[in-house]
Prior knowledge:
By secondary structure, this protein is mainly beta. It contains one helix and eight strands.
Amino acid sequence: MKKIAVTLFVSLMSIVAFATATIKFNETVHNFGSFPESAGKVSCDFEFTNTGDSPLVLQDVKASCGCTTPEWTKTPIAPGKKGVVKATYNATGRPGAFTKTITVKSNAGETKLTIKGEVQNGKPAPVGEEL
């Protein structure tokens, strides 16, 4: 009986050791294009799927600077289910081109997401010129 219990335990631990979560994003780069500074905050959603065979947990999500704020699915995502990382960029007072990253750390590893675009200055262009 003891041998059977040990064999079952070792077999179960082997199965658990091979169960892994994997994360697949629909896109890892979002380009907002050109937009006016007066738009203020702009946001996009990075949707992902757990393509593994165990629950996926996002442990930490950080932006490369304070002008970008991430929000994310905080509950475990079952295999085959979807979650989202929302990135919000505050364009106020930041005219010009930008590229920012969001680092997603999970039990499936680390993924870098990128947002980019160009904020058009709120001042009107002189007659005959473009911004």
